[in-house]
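Blackboard transcription, Thursday session:
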Amino acid sequence: MVVVGAGFAGLAAMAEFARMGWTALLVDRQPYTTFQPLLYQVATGGLNVEDVAFPVRSLLRWMGRGRFVQGRVVAIDWDGGKITLEGGRAIGYDHLMLATGAVPRFYGVPGAENHGLPLHTLSDAARLRTRLVAELERAVASGPGPLRMRVVVVGGGPTGVETAGALAELRDLLTGRDYPELRAQDVSIELLEATPGLLPGFHPRLSRYAQSELRRRRVLVLTSSAVREVREGAVLVDSGPRPADLLVWAAGVEVPDIPMLRGLPRTASGRLVVTPSLQLPDHPEAFALGDVAGARGAASELPQLAQPAIQAGRHAARQLSRIARGLEPQPFIYRDRGVMATIGRRAAVAELRGGLRLTGTTAWLAWLGLHLVELLGVRNRFSVLLNWTWHYVAWRRAAGLIPPAPG
Amino acid sequence: MVVVGAGFAGLAAMAEFARMGWTALLVDRQPYTTFQPLLYQVATGGLNVEDVAFPVRSLLRWMGRGRFVQGRVVAIDWDGGKITLEGGRAIGYDHLMLATGAVPRFYGVPGAENHGLPLHTLSDAARLRTRLVAELERAVASGPGPLRMRVVVVGGGPTGVETAGALAELRDLLTGRDYPELRAQDVSIELLEATPGLLPGFHPRLSRYAQSELRRRRVLVLTSSAVREVREGAVLVDSGPRPADLLVWAAGVEVPDIPMLRGLPRTASGRLVVTPSLQLPDHPEAFALGDVAGARGAASELPQLAQPAIQAGRHAARQLSRIARGLEPQPFIYRDRGVMATIGRRAAVAELRGGLRLTGTTAWLAWLGLHLVELLGVRNRFSVLLNWTWHYVAWRRAAGLIPPAPG
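(Written on the board underneath:)
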């Protein structure tokens, strides 16, 4: 078995293989895995880079089984049953798990890819933090004026909402303190969403709560504001240009058109077509898992989130066990545990199974607990807990704003 | 007052100014300060980037006084009394403190600057860690062979000894565990020193102890081995070429020939000539502090270490107070508190005031305590303590080996 991609789906498959006593091979471009749901905290200085990343090899050691090869897969030889890595190395497989994830989606908006800062990888988070510090210093040096730093976040989904909320808290913490030259009102934060409401997919009550909490934190929320074009220093929406010294692009993800995936049929949203059991229709020896796959839930395609990816990884590994025993693979049934997003200190929204909807402190505590439990590794959990506790008690950003990738 | 450079010397001056009730201006290229003595721990995965860096603005806030401007000084107008930043901004001063530090020294060895990885800045530490991970994966992919990864450390001073010791521990921790494909004997570590003994300046007994402890950890120590040339994959010493997949350059520092320092007289070792009170002979309104200055101790120039820098910063600030009161500045008298270097777990050497010499666990505990106390910031101290405790208890590297500057 070869698993490509060390995200939630790939690692869940590896863990399930280890439990079954099988030794699978995991391939990824990076030697570490990233806890993507908390990248916005790294970008805004609440967590350190190392709090949300973990060495793949350590994880495999803890699972007790599994091998790792670092490399970028450039081609799949479906007939020969082998993958080729950049540099030419070929690795044969009997069964293949594709869990290669997604990339930020720019919807063909001119200038978006050049000027927008996505928040999808560890490097993205490091880059955004570095830019944030640089912009703060630029704002200080710019001297007095009506608005000295304008931050625009594009995308009103969970990532956009969480980033805008964290940026607002950061602004209120730093201005007048570490940056005595700046007042909070010198820094504007805007959140642009193309649809009429924030957090599409959440219940309207939670969406309204998120919007009012963001407004209370002085984030200007503009809904029904699709971005038409991005230029240096400005974003164009239908109502006109909005100045932007810093542009965070959190408008969703898509499956990239990379050589290894060429020739595989895609769904309308560009994800790989899979059978109900998550196999590729023309290549039943291969499964597609997580963000890359267009697995369907009851009504529509499953959201590209951690929970569906983890459950899909586990399911696919179990089907290999069935196939090995001569049984038919079973369809994947996603168990929806709910969705959550945090806006700030003691302000979050949670939509749990059975229609339970939480807001405020309760939702925030639920969000905190869930993320702590899901964070990989005991030591990371300790460290994150320490950072968060400190952050909460001292009412300041724990990590300060040290650019994690200094130049 | 304008202080250029937010290292040990510059920050000590700022702290003393704050105590005196004076508001000075600090200028640095970076918005954070780096605890350089522990960079080798960041490079070898024992500490996180954020454990040894701290935002300058937070430090100034804690000092209670002081302003900060981020920028690179490109020129000093001595007659006009102003400095010019990259970009053209000019800042006037009545008194100036030059604490701009040093850079790695390559002694004109051909190829050294191209192929050697220094360990002087946060970026250096991040780069070395990234290269280390990449080399380990390359060694795994290279397949069986007599020696699959060869690390050479150039320089047998404290930084070289500490780095070689940490690399040896890391090798023994990772091989057979996170890297089951590698055995400890597949990875060689060599330490090259130009003089006949390690740790020049320490007592010969401590030097011998360091050498035997490193040998016990299977580091090949080659003394009297000056590097003549560095090529891709090899280092040339008099006895012949030594293959090197990874080359750490820890052979000392020098004051760079940067435009802002042009025209100032230098000592034989290239440091700025200063009066006994640390003033520039031709510009008594300016002081030079720390690594950049050739301040003299009882016998020779003071070592380019944290302690002399801190004491010099404090001294210079106090002299300004004397000058303001119409008094003559006093000569700087360095109080030598001793020197230390750690080789590994419970193995260190310390040479303290009054001829007290420690080795082994006692010296290691002294080293640990000293660095914890000196680390800036309460939260960093917590975090470092947590990382170290975890490291010690779990007998593994805390941070794993996540490259802190992923690309």
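Lecturer's comment: The radius of gyration of chain B is 22 Å.
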